[in-house]
Design brief:
Strand content: 15-25%
Structural class: alpha/beta
Oligomer: single chain
Shape: globular
Number of strands: 20
Mean pLDDT: 95
Helix content: 25-40%
Low-confidence stretches: none
Radius of gyration: 23 Å
C-alpha cells in the first residue's frame, strides 16, 4: 500500500491584525517529514508510526506548521499548497496511490479565502479521486460541508490541553489501513451544535467535557464505529461555519446507522449541558486578578501563584503584545516591590525590543518600549529603562531571539517572534526557574502541565486582547447566527447539516 501523508496546521485568529507569513511557519518536505518532522509531539508522528508498522510505503509530501496567530498570508498558502499538490502528482506518476492521511488543524484561515483545509483537501481529492482519505484534526477544528465531502474519516484530539496528538494521528492512520485492507468504505456522520465555547471552559479533565468525551470513547467501542470526535470550533475566528461539531466515522454500510445514532446522542447531550461549561480556574478581571495574586503571596504565603493573562494568549492566536494586564502591574508597582522575589512576566512579542536588548548585551541598561505594536486597541507602547539579564539567539524550532530584562522588581521575557509562552523549555533557556518566583504572570489561558504541576494557586485574568474569554463582548460580524451563548434563546433543531 502506497499512502500519501502531509499536513498543514495553524489556528487562525481573525481578530488579530497580524498576517501570518512564511517567516512564521516551519516546513518539512519530503523525507524530512519522517526523518525530522515535528516528532514527537504532533499527529503526523502517529500517522507515520502506524503506517510503517502496517508495512505501508509512506509517500511524504510536506508538513507546515506555525504558532496560532492572525490569518495566513494568501501568497504563502498558495505556494505551499501548490508544492504539496505537485508532490502528490509526482507520487501518482510513479505508481498507484492507495490512500491519503493528513495532519490538519481544522481552523486555518487564509486572507481572502477563508477555510484552508477545505480548499486543500478539495484540490487533493481532484488528484486522487476514489481512494480512502482520512485526517487527524485539532479539538478546535471548524467543520465545513466541503471538508466533509472530500474526507472519508476523521479523528480529533480528546484532550485539552492537547497531549494526545500522536495518538490521534495513529487513529486516523488505522482507520485508513482498515478501510483499504477490508475494502469497506468509511463514512462520517456529522451534527452541528449551534454553540461556540472558549477552550478555557472546556478542559478535557473538567465537567462537562470529561463526561462528553467518555461518551465518545464509549461510542468507539461499538461495532463498526472507528472514531467519535467532539470538535469545538475556534471562538476567535469570526466566520460563518464556526460552531461545535460531532463527527462519528464508521466502516461498512452496516455501521452507518450506528454512526448516525451516536452522533445524534452525543450532540443532544452536549446541547443539554451547554449551561454547565465554566472556567475551571479561579477567574476575575485584570484588576481583581493582580490584587488577589498579591494578597495570596503577601498575606497568605502562597507561592508560586500563577496568573493567566488570557485575553492576550499567543497560543490562542492573540498578538502577544497587548498591555492591558501589564498596565495593572505598572499601576501597582509599589505593591510589586514588596514581593519577596521578582514578579516574573512571560511575556511580550516585540521584535524591536529584543533587537535593542541583543545589541546592548547582557548586563547593560537600555531604554526600550514594549507592547502596542499590533493590538493597539488593547495595548500601548510602554517605555521602560531595563537591565538586560540574559539574551538567547535562535531559540526553538521557530528560531526566535529571546531576552529576559529586569525593571524594578519585575523580570520580563520578550521574544522576537510570535511564539507561545507555555513552552516548558522557554524559561529554562533563559536560566529562569518559574518555581523560584512567588508570582508568575503568563500569556496563556489554562495553564500548561509544566506550570500546573508547580502552581500553588492559579488565577485566570479575563483580560482584554484578541483571545478575549468573554465571548459575548466580541463584536462578531460573520458567524452563522443564532449561536449560544451569544444568543441565549438559540434552539437546537437540525439533526444534520
Amino acid at each position: 500500500m502506497r499512502i500519501i501523508i502531509g499536513g498543514m496546521s495553524h489556528e487562525s485568529n481573525t481578530l488579530n491584525p497580524i498576517i501570518t507569513g512564511a517567516e512564521d511557519f516551519i516546513v518539512f518536505r519530503g523525507s524530512k517529514v519522517i526523518e525530522e518532522g515535528l516528532l514527537p509531539y504532533y499527529s503526523v508522528t502517529g500517522i507515520a508510526r502506524v503506517l510503517a508498522a502496517s508495512g505501508c510505503e509512506i509517500v511524504p509530501t510536506l508538513v507546515a506548521r506555525a504558532v496560532p496567530n492572525g490569518v495566513v498570508c494568501a501568497a504563502f498558502y498558495r505556494e505551499i499548497k501548490a508544492e504539496l499538490l505537485a508532490r502528490a502528482r509526482d507520487a501518482l506518476a510513479q505508481g498507484p496511490i492507495d490512500g491519503a492521511c493528513l495532519a490538519l488543524h481544522g481552523s486555518m484561515k487564509v486572507e481572502g479565502l477563508g477555510c484552508a483545509e477545505e480548499d486543500l483537501v478539495s484540490a487533493l481529492r481532484e488528484i486522487l479521486p476514489g481512494i480512502p482519505f482520512t485526517a487527524a484534526l485539532d479539538m478546535h477544528a471548524t467543520i465545513t460541508p466541503r471538508l466533509l465531502a472530500c474526507v472519508d474519516g476523521f479523528a480529533g484530539y480528546k484532550t485539552a490541553p492537547h497531549v494526545d496528538a500522536p495518538e490521534t494521528g495513529e487513529l486516523a492512520a488505522r482507520m485508513l489501513v482498515e478501510s483499504i485492507r477490508s475494502g469497506k468504505k468509511l463514512r462520517t456522520a456529522h451534527r452541528r451544535v449551534p454553540m461556540i465555547i472558549a477552550g478555557e471552559k472546556s478542559e478535557s479533565e473538567a465537567e462537562p467535557m470529561a463526561s462528553l468525551l467518555a461518551r465518545c470513547r464509549s461510542a468507539e467501542a461499538r461495532d463498526g464505529i472507528l472514531a467519535a470526535s467532539l470538535l469545538l470550533g475556534f471562538p476567535w475566528a469570526d466566520e460563518k461555519h464556526n460552531a461545535v461539531s460531532v463527527l462519528v466515522t464508521t466502516i461498512g454500510e452496516d455501521a452507518a446507522g450506528a454512526g448516525e445514532d451516536a452522533a445524534e446522542r452525543i450532540s443532544r447531550e452536549f446541547w443539554a449541558r451547554r449551561g454547565d461549561f465554566a472556567f475551571r480556574a479561579e477567574h476575575c478581571d485584570s484588576r481583581a486578578a493582580i490584587e488577589r495574586a498579591y494578597d495570596a503571596v503577601l498575606n497568605e504565603g502562597q507561592a508560586p501563584v500563577f496568573v493567566s493573562d488570557s485575553g492576550d494568549n499567543p497560543t490562542a492566536g492573540a498578538t502577544g503584545d497587548a498591555t492591558e494586564f501589564f498596565e495593572k502591574i505598572i499601576d501597582t508597582i509599589e505593591t510589586a516591590e514588596k514581593l519577596p522575589t521578582r514578579l516574573l512576566y512571560s511575556g511580550f512579542f516585540d521584535a524591536k525590543a529584543v533587537a535593542d536588548c541583543m545589541a546592548a548585551g547582557a548586563g547593560a541598561d537600555v531604554d526600550i518600549t514594549i507592547g502596542g505594536n499590533w493590538d493597539t486597541a488593547n495595548g500601548r507602547k510602554i517605555a521602560l529603562r531595563v537591565r538586560v539579564e540574559r539574551v538567547v539567539e535562535s531559540y526553538g524550532i521557530f528560531r526566535s531571539d529571546v531576552a529576559a530584562v529586569s525593571f524594578r522588581n519585575l523580570l520580563i521575557v520578550i521574544t522576537s517572534k510570535h511564539i507561545g509562552f507555555g513552552d516548558e523549555d522557554l524559561l529554562p533557556a533563559l536560566g529562569i526557574k518559574a518555581e523560584e518566583h512567588c508570582l508568575v504572570v503568563v500569556k496563556l489561558g489554562y495553564l500548561e502541565p509544566c506550570f500546573r504541576r508547580i502552581a500553588a494557586r492559579a488565577i485566570l485574568a479575563t483580560s482584554r486582547g484578541c483571545s478575549n474569554e468573554i465571548l459575548e463582548s466580541i463584536p462578531y460580524k460573520n458567524l452563522g447566527r443564532p449561536l449560544y451563548p451569544l444568543d441565549k434563546d438559540t434552539e437546537y433543531l437540525a439533526a444534520a447539516p
